[in-house]
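User: For a reading group we're discussing how well predicted structures match intuition. Take DYW domain-containing protein. Before you show the prediction, I'll give you the sequence so everyone sees exactly what went in.
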Amino acid sequence: MPPPPSRSPPPPPRAIFSPRCTSLQTPSTQPQHRYLPDGGPQRQGHVSPRRARARPPRERDLAAPYAREIGACVRARRWGAACEAFASMRAVGAAPDRFLLPQVLRACAGLGSPRLAAAAHALAAKGGAALAEDPVVGNAIVAMYAALGDVASARAAFASLPDRDVVAWTALIGAHADAGEPDEAFDLFEEMQESGVRPDLISWNTLVSGFARIGDIGAALHLFDEMRLRGVEPGVNSWNCVISGCVQNALYEEAMGIFQEMCESKRPDSVTVASILPACAGLQALRIGKQLHSYVLRHGIKLNVYIGASLISMYSECGEFDYARVVFSTIEEEKNATVWNELIQLYIREGRMDKAWEAFNRMQEDGLETDIVTYNSFIAEYARAGQKEQAYELFSGIVDMGLKPNVVSMNALICGLYQHGLYTDALEAFRYMQGSSDAKAKAWRFLDNSSPIQPTGTTITSVLSLLTDLKLDRLGKEVHCYALKNGLTSNIFVSSKLVDLYGKIGDVTSAANVFQKIGNKNVVTWNSLLAAYKHNKKAEVALKLFSEMLESNLHPNLVTVQIALLSCGMTMALGYGRELHSYITKSWPGGFPATLACALMDMYGKCGNIEDARLVFECTVPKDITVWNTMMSCYLLHRMPMGVIDLFDCLEQSNIQPDPITFILLLSACKQEGLLEEARGYFNNMEDVYGIKPTLKHYTCMVDIMGSAGLLAESLTLIQEMPVEPDACLWSTVLKACKLHSNLEVGEKAAKALFKVEPNNTSNYMVFSNIYADTGLWDSTEAVRDAMTEQGLHVEKQCSWLYRGTAVHPFEAGDLSHPAIDVILSTWKDLTTRMEQSGYSPRDIEPYCNVEADPFSCHHTEKFAVCYGLISMNDNEPIRISKNFRMCMECHSSIKFISRDKNRQILVSDGCTYHRFKDGTCSCGDAW
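Assistant: Thanks. Here is the predicted 3D structure of DYW domain-containing protein, as structure tokens, for the group to look at:
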């Protein structure tokens, strides 16, 4: 890492006010006021109010040059320099007037220093009525605390105002909006009107911005209608607030849609362009970004530092680094630190750290002070690259220069370490932020632990993401407690990530509890809960919640619709899926994204309608490799391996490069068709022809193909020759092949290896137990089951779901609470009689209704679902069932008989294979 720059940094914030003036004493010449009953000020000795406010000419002359300098610094947003100038002004004995003090208050807020803000407030309080009771100064104090995020102080300052005009109300509304409390902001907005103060356009924009920033775009747009009804026409800034809010919440598609709607009635300005360009970057919409660049040039909009920085970021994130450099060189006004930081970030994205440091030095040569934002970019990159020592060294260098790492620095470090997989280091950094005594590693010795950096909502969100991926539920709950204690759960992103965490660790009850306590639910929050239920195989609940979300007047986004479609596939809810297809067509009239096309194809495939899946595939233009892979997986699910192979032949002719997933699907198709030699050919061609290096998943496919063919010894040889270590999935594949061929010798080797890498998976014990049972070793069978019980492992309850109309009917093993259970059992009894008359004797269903039944046995829950489908659905309507366990032979044979006897099409997805029963046969060919 290059040495720290030689230029001296600006003095740290604590040195801005000298000891002499930190108390911000007012000169003794300041007149003392008292107030008469009519509210008019009067000085002792009957001096006129005008004279009372006047300052001595000498003091006024002393203050004038400082006032001009402070004003220039504030306009240039050089907050530190403004505060330094003010400190110098106080050192010579000059005091601010009612015009200068608001600018000083603004500089204190811009610098982000609560201590200086409190000192400035004290100065106003000691300045007599000329300052303390001036409405402009009072409003500036409220606005200062609002900008600092100190809502309590903003409210206290607001309460002390003798007269509250629209500016003061708007500042307090903005404080709550900025704190992520839009409901409180809305209540104040209503209270303002009740007090007789009419909101202006800025007030409306502040409220709109508050809802937009938390992602509640529906509420923000609803306020647009309210504005018009109350006689206020939304301006360009109003639209900019919503667009900016969408971008801040990474709702890039929504931002783009609102931008297009805005263009129908308003002409975008420079702020609009700067706001929407990050959405272009997020969507990789380079073409639209270039059109916006052209719009700026064509309409004579000045290429200022804000648009320039957004363009540089957009081009660099889209990989157009040369364009970004051209923009940097053509910015019309003097480049500020933001623009230089974007150039540095450009080189970092390019992987050219030497150029990034070169730009860093050029920035200093250009007369600009490097700030903590500049260093944060380097910290984030070193952490992402796993170069933690360089990141820590940079922290140390910053401290040595007199700058203090801020919460963004820590967030960059934690996120980077997490992304590189350095989970322990990321957690240690978070522990330091908490002030934990455990975080005493050498890495932190250079930081002043007397005032640790307080975690923000961004920090908590990053740490929760880490814990979610690692499934560390205990630590996740600790962080939840910390967030509650520090009032961070009101942050919508923290709450949404908590819902996600609990959903991923299987605790949907806690996920739902967190969700219910969220006051300002947005689309992201709903998505987290929907995903939690889907992830935990409660797709029917996810669909019910999706309907509730629509009733709450929230508009689903791309992710919401994807989750709903996946849930339809899991429950075989074809009717619901068709309604979603119609909704998608209406919402994306110009053609929907490839991600939705894939979700639709997946839904139709899992609902048994391969024809509609193919129709979506044909209508999707252009097709990327993900679309081709999804169609192949649909054929694979329906045990149509030749469809996969034929589609691969078409793919080769389309000039689209296959990816590793394509070959996983292709090898799986060869396994279904029993094409061993063809599979070897595809496997060898991966690297030789397509340059795709086989991964562990590809080796697992080959082991599966060999195992299915009975080549178990050969599959073990392939495992030994692999360049990667086998995982649980591979050994599980070997174990299942041993079950298929009753090979106890290889099975014991596979089980021994499997239990080492995955000791808590119940299905592994079940398969191994069944191998012993198939070979008649009952004592060994019981020993495996006892070992599983000793480890506290439990088999997930078997469940089948029947989709009928708009309802999903679950049938869980041991649960006889269904309202039609008596009719269901009677129907099964009639069916067993017909089976016996035809020479087939099925097992009875009733012994497996007991919750104490053997967990290793099939509970035949799909039989319940089939019987209920027969008695509740039209004769010409297919019966669609999904199950969370693989079908047993007995159930499979029974449903084949029922499909012929009742002349019904019965579709069953068991999570492993899709079964289409018709006329006494199954599409799987009795091999699954």
